[in-house]
Structure formats: structure tokens, C-alpha cells
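User: Quick sanity check before I run a bigger batch. Here is a single chain. Can you write out its predicted 3D structure?
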Amino acid sequence: MDPSLEVVIRFQEVKRWHMVDVAPTQNLASHSATVALLAGYIAHTCPGMYFGSSAEMMIQGLIHDIGETMTGDIPGHVKNVLGEGPKKLEHQLTPRWLRGTEDVNTRNLIKLCDLAEAIRYVKIRGVTRIASWAADQLRKAYEKHLEHAQEDWPDLVVIHVHKTLCDYMDVR
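Assistant: Done. Predicted structure follows.
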């Protein structure tokens, strides 16, 4: 079978949060769609169209975790211990036409949207204290990645992205 078709088949089947109790269970397709729309919104509303086309940003958000259709969702803390191995494997298994951009600004925005989506999901859907711990760890990763993005982005862009993502993550 063509690996590209396998990606399509598995996109809705890969479960997220297998180490954190959430209700309902989230799948890769749902997560990626939310990241895509969030990144597209930020690109569309960003001063000076800093990130370019919102449509292109949505595509990058949609495919950002596509390698997980072949490996499953490996928790972030496990990926940290394993180093670059999981990312290299996901890259090798991803069909070439589905590999994301290497543009640093795009990758930074997608990662921040990815973390914000995870924080919001676990905050709303988490059902145990483990979920609270996971949200705290995700927030730390978000803050660290925001600091990293600040090295490349103008202050106006950083403020816009951070405010938008904080508004998104704020569950009232």
C-alpha cells in the first residue's frame, strides 16, 4: 500500500493522551485541525502579515504531526529522553509531499499553537491530577518555546501571538 494512503487511513485513528485520562479521547486529526485553524487565524490577524498566507499556515498546522500516523503519539517527556530518534523516525516514515516546511518562523508558530491546543484540551478534558501535572508541564514548554521564538520575531509579533494564544488557552 502507498504510504500516503496509509497516512489518510490512520489520521483519525491515532489516539492522543494515552498517559493522561481525558474525556472524550482526542485523536490526531482533531488535534491537528484545531492547530491548523489556530495558526491560520494568527497568520491572518498578525500585524504586517508577518507569517504570510493563512492558508499555507493552516496546511502546515494540519500536517505538523503527520509522522505520528506511523509511530503513534509519543509523549513529550519520552521524546525528550529519547532525543532526536523519534523525530528522525517520523520524518523518514512521512511521505515526502507531507513533510512540513523548514521555515523557522512557521515552525515556531506551529509549535506554540500545538502546545496551546494541548494545554487547553487537557485543562478542559483532563479528569485526574495527572492532567493538572501535564498542563503545568505543557505550560513550561510553552513559555520556553515562546522565549525561543522571541529571538527571531519582532516584539509586535511576539505580543500578538502570545496574547492570541493566552486568550485561546483561557478557559473561563
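The chain has nine helices and no strands.

User: Great, the batch can go ahead then.
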